[in-house]
Amino acid sequence: MDTLARNDTGSRTNKLGVVVGLLEDDPDMAALVGQWLEEAGYTVRLFRNATEFRRRQGTEAIDLLVLDWMLPDSTGIDVIGAIRSSPNARLPVVFLTARDAEDDIVRALAAGGDDYVVKPPKRRELLARLGAVLRRHGGDAETGSGDVVELDPYSVDSRRRKVSIGDREIDLTQREFDLASFLFRRQGRIVSRDALLENVWNLSAAVSTRTVDTHVSRLRKKLELNGEHGWRLAAIYQHGYRLEQV
Questions:
Q1: Chain segment 176-199, per-residue pLDDT in tens
Q2: Hey, is 120 helix, strand or coil?
Q3: Cα(198)–Cα(167) distance, rounded to whole angstroms?
Q4: 17: left (phi over 0), alpha (psi -120 to 50) or beta
């Protein structure tokens, strides 16, 4: 698959607004699954080993992780254990592995896996399972990446580029709307400052993050995201921000 071969991040502009991380060391399997995902409209972030995933997870805005069990430097069980004990514990994870024993499946699900697919995968089944997991977590094309995101009493309308609190429309700049849309689609998940710079500002993570903090503070004030409406835009020390229900 040429995109993954040319670009270590394996990224491509998508139509669904959902980013799928693919932790897979087999280049042929990574190319095949990555192609299926991109053809379905997802953006793909490819990680070739657990070390690379750990290094980049703070700067990548991932909505779901597809995880191999057998990795050159770790195991899928260890990876998901680290995720579930981290501030980003709610990240959906789907195992994709050749291990098909019942004990392995039970172990992976007990460790926090949201689903389990045995290799070789079937294209339609894999995409259907990923879509089902995303729906359960509020991040699929219909509920988390469509034209409107509803988090009562908030409504974020991407087509009209409007944010409302109940019947009250809030006046936002273009950048503030982009920031709000990105955060609302990832409610409950930590989003790093670097990820916001890359995805909202289209800037390198090497750029100062002060502009992110300033915009987040302004957005928090305008949208009254201090808990009074049931939602809070919280700063997570050394990690970034999370829109969370209170």
A1: 999 999 999 888 888 888 788 877
A2: coil
A3: 32
A4: left
